[in-house]
C-alpha cells in the first residue's frame, strides 16, 4: 500500500455516511478510497499526535502506522464514529512507539541517576505511566476485574485519550453515561487494586 501526504484534510469535512462508505471500500482493497480517507483525517490526527508527542519523527511514524493498520483492518470497523475509531488506533500506536523508545534507551545506556526526592531527569510523564499501567502490571490485572462496560469507558478516555464526546460516539452511549461510568470505573478499579494488595491484618505474634 502506498501512503500519501502526512498533513492535509480536515476532520470537519467528513460525513458519517461518507466515511463509512470509504471504509467499506478500503476493506475491499480500494486504494483510491484509502487515499481519500487519509486526506480527510491525516491533518487532525497529525495535529493531535503532535500535542501528545514532541518528536516529529515519532509522530510521522505513528501516523503512517495508523493508516497501515486501517488498510489492514478496515473490515473490522463496526460502525463506530470514524474519528474516534481512528484516534483509538493512533493512540495505541503512540503508546507502542513510546514503549519501544524506552526499551531501546534501557538497552543503549546506563540507568538514569535519580534526582532529589527520588525523581528522574528523563522519567516518563504521569500520563505515560498510567497508559503503561493499564496494559501491564497490577493496574492491568485490576482493570480486567471490573465490568466490561466500565472497562471500555476507562480504556477510551485514559488509554486512547478520547474526550467525553469522542468516547460517547465511539461507544454509542450518551456523554452523561460516559462520565458516570468513568466515575464508577475508577471506584471499581480502586477496589480491585485493594483486593490485589490487601492490607495485612493483625500484628506480630
TrEMBL record:
Gene3D superfamilies: 1.10.1740.10, Winged helix-like DNA-binding domain superfamily/Winged helix DNA-binding domain. InterPro entries: RNA_pol_sigma-70-like (IPR039425), RNA_pol_sigma-70_dom (IPR014284), RNA_pol_sigma70_r2 (IPR007627), RNA_pol_sigma70_r4_t2 (IPR013249), RNA_pol_sigma_r2 (IPR013325), RNA_pol_sigma_r3/r4-like (IPR013324), WH-like_DNA-bd_sf (IPR036388). Signal peptide: none annotated. GO terms for molecular function: DNA binding; sigma factor activity. Keywords: Sigma factor, Transcription, Transcription regulation. Residues 37-103 form the RNA polymerase sigma-70 region domain. Pfam families: Sigma70_r2, Sigma70_r4_2. Residues 139-189 form the RNA polymerase sigma factor 70 region 4 type domain. GO terms for biological process: DNA-templated transcription initiation. NCBIfam families: sigma70-ECF. Belongs to the sigma-70 factor family. ECF subfamily. This is RNA polymerase ECF-subfamily sigma factor. It comes from Streptomyces collinus (strain DSM 40733 / Tue 365).
Amino acid at each position: 500500500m502506498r501512503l500519501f501526504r502526512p498533513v492535509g484534510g480536515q476532520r470537519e469535512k467528513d460525513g458519517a455516511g461518507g466515511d463509512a462508505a470509504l471504509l467499506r471500500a478500503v476493506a475491499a482493497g480500494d486504494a483510491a478510497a484509502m487515499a481519500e480517507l487519509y486526506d480527510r483525517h491525516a491533518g487532525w490526527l497529525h495535529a493531535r499526535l503532535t500535542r501528545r508527542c514532541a518528536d516529529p519523527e515519532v509522530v510521522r511514524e505513528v501516523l503512517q502506522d495508523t493508516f497501515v493498520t486501517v488498510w489492514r483492518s478496515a473490515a473490522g470497523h463496526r460502525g463506530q464514529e470514524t474519528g474516534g475509531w481512528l484516534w483509538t488506533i493512533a493512540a495505541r500506536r503512540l503508546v507502542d512507539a513510546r514503549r519501544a523508545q524506552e526499551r531501546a534507551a534501557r538497552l543503549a545506556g546506563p540507568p538514569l541517576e535519580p534526582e532529589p526526592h527520588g525523581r528522574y531527569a528523563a522519567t516518563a510523564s504521569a500520563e505515560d505511566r498510567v497508559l503503561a499501567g493499564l496494559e501491564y502490571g497490577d493496574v492491568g490485572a485490576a482493570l480486567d476485574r471490573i465490568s466490561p462496560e466500565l472497562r471500555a469507558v476507562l480504556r477510551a478516555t485514559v488509554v486512547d485519550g478520547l474526550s467525553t464526546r469522542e468516547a460517547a460516539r465511539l461507544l454509542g452511549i450518551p456523554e452523561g453515561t460516559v462520565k458516570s461510568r468513568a466515575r464508577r470505573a475508577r471506584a471499581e478499579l480502586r477496589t480491585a487494586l485493594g483486593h490485589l494488595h490487601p492490607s495485612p491484618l493483625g500484628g506480630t505474634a
